[in-house]
Every structure is written in C-alpha cells, then in structure tokens.
User: Which sequence fits this backbone?
C-alpha cells in the first residue's frame, strides 16, 4: 500500500515537472573499486530536493531541468557533481579519507571526528585466498600490527601484536570484536604456549570459525584513544571485525571457490644429509663403538643398524637361514641398500592434494528488510599425513526496519570443524639436562627433517623398544577434533528523534571442542607399555612398572592389552548484554556534538574435562580392558586419569564518550569507562578500574587558508594527539586465596590421601595491569589525495604489570606475584599509499607499511631459572626487551671436540651446568624474539580487467634459535644436517671449526653428563640466527571477465584469480639453512605455513 | 512503544547497576572455599611443611667431618659445614625451609579462620587442635633452625620469629625468643585437650594424639620445662614397658632398600608421625657427590655407632643393632633409615623429585626425651629405667665380646669417669670420644651422676636421631663445643652459645626487611 502511495507521489511530481524544460537523464553508477554497480546511490539535482536513487543494477533515470548539475553521492564514495547529460555513466571513487566511518564495535564515528590511531582494512583487499583463518591475512596489512605465523596448522592462532607487547606475564593478545561482540577463546593459550606445538594450540584461534568471505572489513584500534571505549580489556589493542550485511535490492548470489595446492617442502631447501652421507657418519659411529651390536640390538631406539642386527639374529624356519647372514658380505650388501635408499620423507609424509573452500552467499532485501546469508565448506585433505580438516560455516544477518524509528538486527554465526592431527603429548623441558623434548613425537614435519634418509619408509624400526613405522604410527595414533562455535545476537535500535539513538544488544555464544586422542593398540606408544622381549629390555623400558610394595619384584606391563582413548573437552558458554544511547547534533552548523554512553555485562563460563580411557581395545569392538595396576601406578605417581576444571568470568562496565568539534576543524574527545571484573577480588577498591582518554584533532584542511596556500599539492592534513589510560586484567587471579585439591606425595599407596592446598596466598591488592599511552599522529594527503601518508608516533608506559615481588615470606610466600613490574615501549608507524599511475586502462598503486616498536622492561625482579632464559621464546630481565633471547656463552671446542661454555658460575666448562640455577649473570643477550620492525610493500597493477598484486612482507630485529640438531648421542634413526661434514674429527681442528665432534664411547663413559654440553650447545651463542626476513607473501593475477561476455551466461560478475602465497623468502639469514624464521619448530601439531598456489573463482549472479 | 522501550531499558540498567557488585562476587575458578569440616580436614593435609632443615642441621653438626679435598662436595653442604651463610636456594636450603614452614603456618591459619566460622563442637575442636599443632610445629622447626636454643637468661634479647596468626597477613617483626616460645606453648596448650584421631584417615602423616604429645614433650624439653616434658612423654609411652622400634627385626631384611622401607612404614608402631620433604638428604649420605663432608669412618669409629659405649664398640664387639646395619664407604657410612624416595615425573629421562620420609616423632625418641627430663629433674632411677628400655630395644644380648649392659648409677659413673673428654679443637681421631663437655645454655647440670646421665642420653639421641638434624639442636642446647676439621686449613670451632647456631635467615627475607641474625664480628 505504502509503495503505491509513493509511486503516486512520484508520478504527481513528475507531472508537475513536465511543465518546465526538461532533459531525461539515464545512466548508471558504478564503483571504481570493483566495477560493481552501486545500488542506492543518490542522484540529486544540485540546489534542489529533486532526485532519485540507483536501482539494483546501478541504473537511474531522472528528468531534470536543462543545464542543471547532478550530485552523485554514496556512503564511502567521493561525491561527484556533474552537468546533466542524457546519458551518464558515473564511476564513483571510493573515499579514502573523507566521510569515512570508524567502527569501534560499540559505535560508529565520523572519521573526521575520530581522534585515535586506527586503520581500516577492506577484507576483500586483505584476504589471502586459500588461507582459511582470517587472522593470518592481517600480516603486513596495518602499520603497528605484527603477525607471526609461529605455526601454520589450521586453528592455531598466529602471534598477533598491536604495537608490541603490553604485559610481561600476560598474553598481550588483542581483543577480537565481531559485529560488536567480544570473541572469547574457548581455552586460554598464552603467547608463549602458541609456539609450543601442544594439541591445545589447535583451538587457540577464536576466529577460526569465521568464513573469510563473510567479512566486510577489519578496523584495528591501536592507541589508547581508539581503544579506550573498551578500557580495561583493550590494553593490547582491538581488532574489530564487521561482517557483511544485506542491501536493499534484488537478491544476489555470490559464489567463491578456492582451490589450493600446497607444495611439498623439498630437500633442496634444507641442508640434510642424503643417505650416502648419512651412512658414512653411521659407519664412523660404528667404528667408534657407538653402533655396536651390544649397544644397538636392544637399544630403545634404533634404525638401520638395529634392524640389521635384529635380522642377523632372526631365524627363518622356512628357509632354514637367518634373515641376514652374519658375514661381512651380508652386512655390506644390507648397508649398501640403505646407502642407496635416499628416502624422500617429504614425499612420504606430505601431499599436494587439493584443498577446497566453497562459499556461497545470498543477500538482498527491501527498504524494510535486508538479509545476508552464507554457507561455506572447507575441505582440506591435509598437507601432511593425518591433518585433514573440514569446516562448515553458516551465517545469517537480517536487518528489519520495523518502523522509521525502530530497527532490529539479528545475526547468527555457526561453524563446525572436524580436524585430525597426529597424536601428541605436551612438550616438556627437562630442567636437569637442559633438553626440551616431547615423548612419542610423530609430527610429520619434524619427523621428515629429523629422520635419516637411509631408513626404508615401509620398514618397522625400533623406538621405545617397540616396532615403529611413521605411517603406521600416524594411522594408529591421532587426534580427532570436533569444534562447534555458535553465536546468536540481536540488536534493537530505537531513534525517537534524529539526534538520539538508543540500542540494546544481546548475544549468546557457545562453543565446544572435543579433542579425542586415539592411541590404538598397534601404535608404538601403546606397544611401548608392553615391550619386554628380553630381560635387558624389561629392566630398561621406563614404561613398565615395578611394584614398590613387592620388594625385588620384576617390572611388568600395566597395559597388557589395548591402547588409550584420551579425551579432552572444552566448553564455553558466554553471554553479553549491552545498552547504549547516543546523541549526535550540530548547532548553528558549526558546533558538532557527539555523546555516547552505556553499560555492558559479560559472562563467560568455561569448562574443561579430561579423561584417559586406559586399555581401550579398538580392534575388539572398543572394549575397555584395564589392569588395576595402571591405576595403582598412577596413584603412586600422582597422575590423574580424569579431571574437571571450570572458569567463570564476569564483567560489568559503564562507559561514556563525548566529542565536540568546531566545524570539524578542531575536535576534542574524552572517554571514560568504569569496569569491574570478578578476577579482582571482593574489595571494591581493586575490583573497579576507571580508564579514560583525552584527545584532540586538528583538521588543517578545513581551515580557510589551507586550500589557497597549498593548492592541491597538499590536499589534506590532520594532526591528532591523545593521552590515555587503559588496562587489562592480570594474568594471576589470587586476589583471594586459591585453594585447590591435590594429592600429596607419599611413599606407599597405603599412606595416600588427598587434600586441599593453598596454591596461592591472597594478594588483596591485586589490580589491573595498566598502560598510559601518548600518541601523536598525522594524516597527509598530497596531490588530490593520490598520495596519502599516515604517520604515528607513540610512547607507552605499562605499569602495575604483574611481576614477582620478594616479601619476608611470613604470609606463606616469599616470591609473590603482584603489580610491581613495569615496561616502556615506543614506536613509529608509517603508511604510505600512492596511486602512482591512473589512466583509463592502466593503474598502478603502491602501499608501503612500516612499523617499529621497541619495548624495554624497566622494573622486574626476575626470578626465573637459567633454563627458562634459553629455551622457547626466552624471557626477560630488567633493562631488556620483552621476551629476549639469551644464550649460553660458547667458547669454542676443546681439544677433544667437545663444546666449551661459560657456565652459570662464570667458569669455563663443557658439561658442568646447573640449568636450574637462578644466577643469570653469565648469559649472553642476543636480542628480542619479537621483531622490532615489521611491514610490507604491496603493488597492485590494473590493466583493463587484469589485476596483478605483488605483496611482500618483512620483519626485522629479532633473533631466532636454530633447530636443536646436536646431541651427545645419535641413534641410527637420526638425520643430521650437512654442517656435520665440517665437524671436529681430529685434534687441532678445534681451531678451524665450531661444529662439535660426535662423542665416542669413551668420552660418553667418562662424562655421564656429556649430554648437558650438547644441550647447552643447542642453546648457545653459536646456534642463533637473525630472524630478519623479507617474504614474498603473495603474487596474484586476477581477471574479471567483461560484462558483455558473461551477460550471455546470465552472470553479473565472473572473475578468476591465480595466487601464489608464501612463495619464497627474498631475504633471510643464511645461518637458517631453510628453517623458517617465523615458524617455531616445536613438533607436536605445529607445521610451518606452506608454499601454496590457489585458484579462486568468483561468480556473482 | 517508545515509553515501553525506555522503561525496559531503564529498568534493566537499574537492576544491573544495583546487582553488579554481587554479580562480580563469583569466584573466577574452582578454588575451594573451606566452609565445611570435611574441607577443613582436607586443608590440614597441607599444613605440614614439605621441606626439612635436616640436611642443613646435620651438616652443621658434629656428625660430619672433612674427608679431604679430593672428594666432591656441594656448595650448600660446604657452606653449612663451615657455618657460613647458606646462600643457595635449593630444596634443602634456608629459603625453602623458611618458605615451606610459613606455607604450613599460613595454611593452618587459613584452616583456623575457616573453623572459626563453623560450629564449635567437639569434632571441629579436634580440627582446630590439629591446625594449632601444625602452626606450632612449623614455628618450632623454624625456631630450631633460625634461632638460638631457648635460654631463659637471654630470652628477652635473643631474636624470635614472626608468628602469624591470621591468614594472608605478613608479620614484619621478629619479636623475642620469649615471645616465640610463649606463642608456641600457647598453641600447644590450647590444642592438647582436644586432639583426636577420629578425623584422620592416614593418622601417621598428621598430628594424631600420640604425635601431639610427643611434640609437646620435645618442645617442653627444649623450653626447659622438664616436668611438663616428662608428663607429656608419659602420655605417649604409658608407664609400663614402652613400645619401641623392633630394630632387631631389620637384621632379617635383605638390604638397604628393605631396611629403608621398613623404617618408614606406617605399620611400625614406634613411628608416631612422618614428615615428607623434597630433599637430597637421603642421597647425601650415599652418593659420592657429597663425599667430602660426611659421616666418615673416624666419626663412626670414635663418636657414633662404633664408638666406645656401654654397649660395646666397633662393628663386631658391639651389641648395638645399628652398628651392624651400616653401609657405605670410608667417607660416608650410613644407616638406611631415611633413604631417598624418587618420584619420577618424566619416565624417559628418569627425572623427577627426590623425597625423604622423616620419622619426625618416634616412641624411641620420646623415650629419650623422658629420660633426659627425668635426669634433669633429678629422677635418676626413672631416667635409668628409660635408658635401659632403649638399650633393650637397640642392643642384642650378646655380640662378640660385648654383652648388653643394664645401666645402673654405678655402672654409668664408672663408665663415663674412665672416658676422656673431647678437647677443642680435636687434633687426632684418638681424641674423639662420646664425652663432650656440657655448657648448658640457660640451665644447670650437676656434676657427677646427672652429667653422666646426660652424656649417655645425648649419645643415645645422637644415634637415634642420626641424619634427622636433631643432633645440632642438642649441641646448641648443651653448648657442646665441636670441631669441624678442614683439609689443609685450620679447624673451625663451634663454641658454646655460638651465635652461628641460629642459622642465617634466607637472603631474600632479609632483603625484604626482616632483621638478620647477629654474628660475632670475628666469625665472618
């Protein structure tokens, strides 16, 4: 009915119009950005109220008075004013600086009035086709945001830092806000754990369930002014994700298909010995007595030699001979085979099989209701064996305008992920010997790098006294992940008058993850629990059990049958409620006032359960058959076979922000947020934190003198400054005493009891970690904004950080974690975007992004051990950057080829180390582990319908540890790097080489702690490289099929894109020898980002 | 429409604003809130220190000697032997002892605070009694380690220790020794009437009633309240023949590990209470890494198990059972009573934690407390009775040329009058005997029988408590002057009332503002 009235009015209006001299103008409006028609652009006769809007195809038609001017405008596009002609095809250019809107997640602010440091990224531009996790696409896109892909496995979050770290013990993770709702992680994996390779890292990415195609844009809030509306949650920055919405017009269907092939790593990238070189070393080991029959035949781990000895010792009744004759000739022929084998482990364990991602979205609607829905399916057969992933997502975004004043927005996202990963236990650091290890590790990438090429991939060798074959192990020891993420949200907006908007938002999130590790009975890990072929093995196998209640009894297996079924379930229920009010008005055309305020409540409950199904017989219809001794042993060792833990987060916040601007020239803004959290105890004083910001901006280009002075050379200039206080909850929660249950160690099972213990004594003064930040920024546009430069400088003072404090201990704790540490950081950020060439057919634009951040811990009473400073991502001390790498001071080889160092006491030694010492004076500082300089250079070339994108990212300033390839004891299973060729072999060579000798039997027997020396070598000054790199991140060529061709196919758009991602490193330290400086090779479930080729097909109906 | 919306929003905002403080009261995790007697019982499981001063005290005592520079030593072992400040921060070092004892105190205080909110009935009073005993015992252990022995003449000048009585609150003043002992006494006296075994599932790892009285007896002996010491020891031992350790039986066992396991079985009735510790002490008397300063052959032959004693001497003509259960090398000879128990956490690398299980209170030791109290009270006969009970349990009737003695006043005096006193410093092994002149700190021992009784009792205590660190406390109490010989250096002498008897507080604690123990300027 209403529609009809409208038409009638328009007709009436047109009738009146015919009375004057009229021109009928028809035409279309398209976007310069993507060539797509602009729907709903307004076309108005200048100086009148006459006009129309473009239809779904971008067409319009209008009768106007002769010689009148038409104003074409659309949100986010530069407004154009053109003289009316009968046929007008207008191309609107996207608006780079003016009239842009900043989305903070809570509210939208006109960019002219926004005083904080922020960057917006168009998702379409940043999207890395073939990389399903959107967080990875931020790498190099924004100045001040560094993204380190410490593992490339899907589901693992990259290490993202906005302006560097903000806390010493906290995670410094930015806050993700999707459509105004904070995304919570199902389990909290901190930044250091991200590089651990443990199974939990696979569910560390809160946004892995988002379909990249659903995302409209990212807005990164960097400084305290931008983030202050999130106050005490936003110390580490905020990433605001806005998903796509429907638009009025006819229904559109878009399909995006990505077909990705990942290249296998190749031996040419690495310097690993081939089988011939490897066998040469083994022969030397044999000559040194290290691979003798006695040592190898019943060794815990053995390869080619062990197999040979076993075959020589196995009688074959059918032939009446031993499997291998115990003759020189027999052995030589066997070893010759191994020498010629040259197994390509990358071919064995990696696959180039096509990974696909299909995404279909439908959108459309009327003035009254708009919708956007999408479905996507990702099917990844796995780059490595046992790493298949499937992900399904669906999302709905419906907007309904109930009346002029009232609107309702409903959004729902759901995703389900099914993923397989190799079975893994958690990494452990042996503080005694200085070794970082993982029992039963079968990570295909580390296996490929660390396994001898002389091994036959189809043969079973020995590991943990049991038969081992990598293919068999991966097939029998794996983890199934089932991840479900659901989000439902609704927002009701009410505009009683134009200036006022009231809104309430409610959201519910639910996610659950089941991580089920099947360790089947045929796996090496299960068989190790019952390997006792003979007395030697029985006595040595650590997985067997000796009953302490039976003196002098023999070890026996507590897992006589079956394997394990280990299930960890994570569950998160979370809801948010928010009510806001805003008031925007302009008085006398010069006083712009924006007020915004509201309150929010968040509630997140997390739940984790673990269960270890002992004796699961997978081949016997999944029958559980356990030996009670397993539990007896577990009880004696304080192992638990099940546990439950829960976490409850409650937050309440009140916030308000006020902006005043005089004519858009001078703007001043203030924000205040008052936040409370249940993590800070019951005392009101500690629980509530007010955070604030005060900032201002000067838009010089709005001054009357600006245009005449600079003409068009400098077309735009904004200067901003802000000072703010933001915070974050501390990483510790002992504002009240923490009492948890435990099982005290007791010598005998009969004396066992369980109890409660105080794990943390109360620190009622515990409060938020805080940050003061001062930011100055300038935005400049040159040559009609063809060249845009943004520069920000900031300095941060992080205080009240959690750090250890020494007390007199009478409360129960000598070293207590309290808000005593502090850290300073500062940095510069520069973005330059330039349209170098703009012609009708050819366009070339360049984006350069550079950021530099320096952190320095200014107050910290370091209480860590020697070992903690040299392993993992290192640690820090007062006066050094956040997470610095320290090394043991290597002092060359001694005359026996054994590496020498300065130990914790300052003495020259080979193996006299106390890795648990807290004396750190003799460690050598190498550098930070986080890059200090990050950025990118992107060039986009458009020629007619072709788009060529060349995008390189870079990172400089950090140090990385080389893979720990040295050991005092090698088995005939291990691969060795080629640098072993240069190793010490005879006395005197210590003057020429720094590569230590392979110790012979006598050396090993003389020094029972020789392994300390080699573990120390792996963590010494000799085994460090620069982390600097320049990476060819993306080269892509896209082709948009011309409209005229595809119209016959009834398509609106059709484009094809070929993209190569992570193609190669343009620059990296030579010492790395193929090791990826971003990747942390920790085994477990970690694999590096693959080099990949992606073909993307986009079809729009 | 409009009104309703505003109304709903206003209502929501208001209700949330008023209730958000209670909304934020939810604890962020599953930490237990001790609000039932069951939970208080469970919390008391951790109100016992899991670190022990035994190694430090033993290395400070005269049970160890320098075997020579050619043998390996550990840094903290050498510092303790030289009575220097032990600055390392391992499991057996002052920092861990301090921290762990105050954790026990803090835990006991937490339990007491929780119990105060529960009904004041008999079963809760038993829990309260255990908590008070835990606090008192942790403070007593700290006092024995970091303070001088109790001396009424100097109790107001000697430093005490901070005595926290509220959970979560630091105490920054050490106070005097008088205050420390008064506090411990108050806790013990408050607890004793209510001690009970009813709530204990594993009584031997808690203050069961026998252990509580054994503790009270030892405390009062050290507090020089001999009457009370005797009275409480009676509660443990009864008046007839006490149940003592079946030391004879150990001779039938297969060897070191079996004796070690048997010694700390909770089924052994002589064991009243155990304390576990993260400690290297079990290894220290067996491993060659500790060989330099150890229980070497000279000490064993002239001062401890094989010394000339009423029950014999040497290894064959000695009725003492323990004299036959010795293992080791000339540098370190050990009786397998407190072995290392290894808890493996990483099977592949065989790494984990070294523990000891200390029989902290035993009937045998309590018997010697009573014997000593009786001796000092002048009850010579009663003292001799207890001495003979001990001898009957620890000595076989005949061994070689030796026979098990029955001590009488005459035989006692006869034996000790023949033995020479150990000089200071000791220059040769021949000068070593079991008779070290007494300089009692704050009390007197009469010449003659009483002194001889104490000589014998101290020797029995030395054997009974070997490796447990208590010998050093006897040295402090009786002002025994001892010599620590040093290879290639002048010997070190520990004088009567030596201020180094109060082991220096952990460096961190001093940095945090607590007053350090004074040292004589010459003893640097």
Assistant:
């Amino acid at each position: 009915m209403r529609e009809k009235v409208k038409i009638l009015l328009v007709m009436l209006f047109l009738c009146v119009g015919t009375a004057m001299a009229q021109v009928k103008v028809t035409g279309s409006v398209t976007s310069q950005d993507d060539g797509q028609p602009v729907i709903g652009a307004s076309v108005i006769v200048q100086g009148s109220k006459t006009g129309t809007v473009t239809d779904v195809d971008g067409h319009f038609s209008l009768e106007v008075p002769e010689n009148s001017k038409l104003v074409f405008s659309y949100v986010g596009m530069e407004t154009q004013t053109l003289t009316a002609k009968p046929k007008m095809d207008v191309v609107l250019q996207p608006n780079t600086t003016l009239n842009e809107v900043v989305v903070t997640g809570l509210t939208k602010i006109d960019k002219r009035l926004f005083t904080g440091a922020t960057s917006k990224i168009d998702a379409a531009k940043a999207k890395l086709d073939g990389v399903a996790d959107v967080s990875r696409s931020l790498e190099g896109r924004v100045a001040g945001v560094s993204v380190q892909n410490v593992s490339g496995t899907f589901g693992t979050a990259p290490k993202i830092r906005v302006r560097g770290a903000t806390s010493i013990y906290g995670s410094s993770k930015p806050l993700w806000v999707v459509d105004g709702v904070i995304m919570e992680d199902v389990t909290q994996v901190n930044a250091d754990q991200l590089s651990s390779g443990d199974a939990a890292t696979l569910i560390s990415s809160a946004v892995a369930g988002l379909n990249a195609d659903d995302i409209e844009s990212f807005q990164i809030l960097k400084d305290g002014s931008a983030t202050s509306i999130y106050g005490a949650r936003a110390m580490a920055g905020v990433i605001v994700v806005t998903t796509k919405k429907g638009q009025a017009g006819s229904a559109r269907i878009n399909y995006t298909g990505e077909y990705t092939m990942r290249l296998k790593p190749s031996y040419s990238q690495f310097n690993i010995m081939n089988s011939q070189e490897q066998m040469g070393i083994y022969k030397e080991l044999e000559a040194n007595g290290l691979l003798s029959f006695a040592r190898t035949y019943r060794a815990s781990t053995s390869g080619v030699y062990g197999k040979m000895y076993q075959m020589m010792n196995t009688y074959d009744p059918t032939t009446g001979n031993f499997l291998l004759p115990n003759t020189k000739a027999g052995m030589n022929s066997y070893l010759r085979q191994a020498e010629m084998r040259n197994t390509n482990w990358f071919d064995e364990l990696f696959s180039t099989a096509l990974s696909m991602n299909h995404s279909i979205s439908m959108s459309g609607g009327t003035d009254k209701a708009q919708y956007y829905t999408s479905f996507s399916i990702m099917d990844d057969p796995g780059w490595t064996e046992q790493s298949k992933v499937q992900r399904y997502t669906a999302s709905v975004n419906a907007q309904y305008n109930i009346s002029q004043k009232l609107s309702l927005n409903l959004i729902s996202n759901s995703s389900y992920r099914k993923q397989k990963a190799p079975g893994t236990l958690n990494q452990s650091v042996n503080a005694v010997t200085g070794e970082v290890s993982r029992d039963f590790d079968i990570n295909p990438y580390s296996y490929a790098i660390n396994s001898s090429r002389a091994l036959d991939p189809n043969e079973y060798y020995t590991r943990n006294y049991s038969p081992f074959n990598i293919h068999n192990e991966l097939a029998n020891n794996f983890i199934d992940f089932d991840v479900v993420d659901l989000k439902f949200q609704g927002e009701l907006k009410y505009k009683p008058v134009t200036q006022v908007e009231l809104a309430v938002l409610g959201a519910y999130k639910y996610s659950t993850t089941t991580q089920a590790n099947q360790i089947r009975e045929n796996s090496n890990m299960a068989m190790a629990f019952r390997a006792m072929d003979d007395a030697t093995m029985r006595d040595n196998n650590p997985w067997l059990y000796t009953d302490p209640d039976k003196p002098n009894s023999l070890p026996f297996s507590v897992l006589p049958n079956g394997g394990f079924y280990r299930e960890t379930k994570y569950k998160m229920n979370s809801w948010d409620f928010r009510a806001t009010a805003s008031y925007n008005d302009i008085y006398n055309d010069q006083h712009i006032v924006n007020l915004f305020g509201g309150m929010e409540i968040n509630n997140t409950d997390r739940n984790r359960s673990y269960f270890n199904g002992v004796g699961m017989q997978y081949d016997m219809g999944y029958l559980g058959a356990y030996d009670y001794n397993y539990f007896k042993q577990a009880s004696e060792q304080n192992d638990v076979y099940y546990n439950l833990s829960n976490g409850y987060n409650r937050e309440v916040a009140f916030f308000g922000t006020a902006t005043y601007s005089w004519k858009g020239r001078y703007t001043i803004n203030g924000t205040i947020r008052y936040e409370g959290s249940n993590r800070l105890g019951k005392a009101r004083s500690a629980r509530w934190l007010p955070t604030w910001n005060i900032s201002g901006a000067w838009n010089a280009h709005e001054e009357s003198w600006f245009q005449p002075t600079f003409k068009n050379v400098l077309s735009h200039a904004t200067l901003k400054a802000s000072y703010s206080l933001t915070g974050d909850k501390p990483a510790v929660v002992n504002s009240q005493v923490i009492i948890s249950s435990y099982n005290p160690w007791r010598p005998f099972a009969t004396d066992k009891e369980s109890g409660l213990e105080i794990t943390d004594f109360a620190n009622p003064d515990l409060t938020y970690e805080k940050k003061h930040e001062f930011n100055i920024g300038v935005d400049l546009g040159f040559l009609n904004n063809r060249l845009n430069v943004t520069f920000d400088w900031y300095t941060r003072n992080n205080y009240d950080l959690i750090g250890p404090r020494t007390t007199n201990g009478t409360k129960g704790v000598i070293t207590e974690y309290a808000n005593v540490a502090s850290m300073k950081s500062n940095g510069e950020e520069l973005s330059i975007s330039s349209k170098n060439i703009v012609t009708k057919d050819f366009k070339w634009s360049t984006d350069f992004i550079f950021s530099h951040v320096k952190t320095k811990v200014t107050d910290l009473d370091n209480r860590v051990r020697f070992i903690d400073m040299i392993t993992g991502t290192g640690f820090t001390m007062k006066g050094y950057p956040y997470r610095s790498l320290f090394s043991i001071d290597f002092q060359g080889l001694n005359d026996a080829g054994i590496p020498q160092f300065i130990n914790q006491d300052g003495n020259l030694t080979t193996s006299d180390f106390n890795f648990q010492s807290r004396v750190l004076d003799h460690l050598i500082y190498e550098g930070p582990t986080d890059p200090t300089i990050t950025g990118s250079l992107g060039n986009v070339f458009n020629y007619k319908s072709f788009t060529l994108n060349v995008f390189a990212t870079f990172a400089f300033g950090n140090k990385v540890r080389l893979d720990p390839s040295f050991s005092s004891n090698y088995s005939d299973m291990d691969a060795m790097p080629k640098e072993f060729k240069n190793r010490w072999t005879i006395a005197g060579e210590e003057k020429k080489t720094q590569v230590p000798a392979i110790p012979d039997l006598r050396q090993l027997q003389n020094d029972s702690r020789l392994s300390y020396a080699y573990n120390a070598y792996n963590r010494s000054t000799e085994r460090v490289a620069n982390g600097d790199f320049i990476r060819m991140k993306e080269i892509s060529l896209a082709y948009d099929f011309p409209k005229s061709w595809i119209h016959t196919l009834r398509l609106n758009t059709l484009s094809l894109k070929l993209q190569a991602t992570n193609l190669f490193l343009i620059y990296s330290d030579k010492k790395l020898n193929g090791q990826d400086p971003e990747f942390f090779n920790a085994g477990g479930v970690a694999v590096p980002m693959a080099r990949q080729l992606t073909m993307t097909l986009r079809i729009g109906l | 429409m409009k009104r309703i919306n505003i109304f709903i929003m206003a209502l929501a905002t208001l209700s949330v604003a008023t209730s958000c403080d209670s909304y934020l009261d939810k604890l962020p995790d599953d930490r237990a809130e001790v609000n039932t007697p069951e939970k208080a019982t469970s919390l008391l499981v951790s109100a016992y220190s899991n670190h022990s001063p035994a190694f430090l005290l033993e290395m400070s005592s005269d049970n160890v000697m320098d075997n020579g520079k050619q043998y390996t030593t550990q840094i903290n072992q050498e510092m303790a032997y030289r009575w220097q400040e032990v600055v390392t921060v391992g499991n057996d070092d002052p920092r861990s002892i301090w921290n762990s004892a105050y954790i026990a105190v803090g835990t006991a205080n937490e339990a007491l605070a929780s119990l105060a909110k529960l009904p004041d009935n008999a079963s809760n009073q038993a829990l309260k009694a255990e908590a008070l005993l835990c606090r008192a015992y942790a403070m007593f252990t700290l006092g024995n380690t970091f303070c001088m022995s109790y001396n009424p003449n100097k109790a107001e000048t000697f430093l005490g220790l901070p005595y926290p009585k509220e959970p979560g609150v630091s105490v920054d003043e050490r106070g005097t020794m008088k205050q420390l002992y008064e506090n411990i006494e108050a806790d013990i006296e408050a607890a004793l009437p209510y001690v009970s075994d009813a709530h204990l599932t594993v009584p031997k790892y808690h203050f069961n009633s026998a252990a509580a009285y054994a503790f009270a007896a030892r405390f009062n002996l050290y507090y020089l309240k001999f009457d009370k010491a005797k009275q409480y020891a009676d509660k443990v031992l009864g008046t007839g023949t006490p149940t003592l350790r079946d030391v004879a039986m150990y001779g039938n066992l297969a060897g070191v590990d079996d004796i070690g396991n048997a010694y700390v079985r909770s089924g052994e009735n002589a064991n009243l209470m155990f304390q576990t510790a993260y400690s290297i002490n079990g290894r220290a008397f067996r491993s060659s890494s500790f060989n330099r300063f150890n229980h070497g052959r000279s000490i064993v032959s002239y001062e401890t198990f094989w010394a000339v004693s009423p029950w014999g001497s040497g290894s064959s003509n000695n009725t003492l059972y323990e004299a036959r259960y010795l293992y080791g090398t000339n540098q370190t000879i050990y009786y397998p009573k407190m072995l290392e128990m290894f808890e493996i956490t990483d099977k592949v690398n065989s790494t984990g934690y070294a523990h000891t299980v200390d029989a902290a209170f035993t009937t045998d030791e309590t018997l010697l407390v009573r014997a000593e109290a009786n001796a000092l009270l002048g009850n010579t006969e009663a003292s001799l009775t207890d001495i003979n009970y001990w001898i009957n349990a620890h000595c076989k009737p005949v061994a070689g040329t030796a026979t098990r003695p029955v001590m009488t006043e005459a035989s006692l005096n006869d034996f000790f009058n023949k033995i020479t006193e150990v000089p200071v410093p000791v220059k040769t092994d021949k000068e070593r005997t079991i008779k070290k002149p007494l300089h009692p700190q704050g009390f007197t021992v009469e010449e003659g029988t009483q002194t001889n009784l104490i000589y014998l009792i101290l020797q029995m205590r030395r054997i009974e408590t070997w490796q447990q660190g208590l010998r050093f406390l006897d040295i402090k109490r009786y002002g025994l002057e001892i010599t620590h010989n040093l290879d290639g250096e002048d010997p070190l002498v520990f004088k009567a009332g030596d201020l180094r008897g109060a082991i220096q507080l952990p460096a961190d604690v001093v940095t945090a503002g607590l007053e350090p123990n004074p040292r004589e300027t010459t003893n640097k």
In short: The two ends of chain A are 30 Å apart (CA to CA). Residues 572 and 606 of chain A are 4 Å apart (CA to CA). Chain A has a mean pLDDT of 87. Chain A touches chain B through 79 residues (CB under 8 Å).
